[in-house]
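Structure tokens please, single chain.
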Amino acid sequence: MTAAFGIGLAVCFIPLPVHFVVASLLAVWLRLNIPVIYATILLINPVTIVPVYYLAYRLGAFLLDLPPTGFAFQMSWDWLQNGLGPMWKPFLVGCLVCGVVGGVLGYMGLELAWRWRVASKYRTRHIPAVV
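Here you go.
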């Protein structure tokens, strides 16, 4: 379950609409919990996609030591060729770093929380007296 959560977080940062396909293939290949990986990739939705990908872009620009640029999206081929040019490299670097770091931290955080919960339940269990 914790591996499915971590990999689901990493898949969230793929900047293409292929999250369900990639998550399904990884879940089958790595024998992961499919409902958990699906629930995790749903963290990226139409409400959260803009701030999450903007954070990835800003992180990539910081890591590549590039100034973040402002842009005005236009639905045209010219904008895709010229307007997207200076942003694709920091965006992809930021998505890669956020995916790896988010996946590892998600896995480790959930694993530690699960272990802590099991250990606390074990310590507080009721041991019946032997008659």
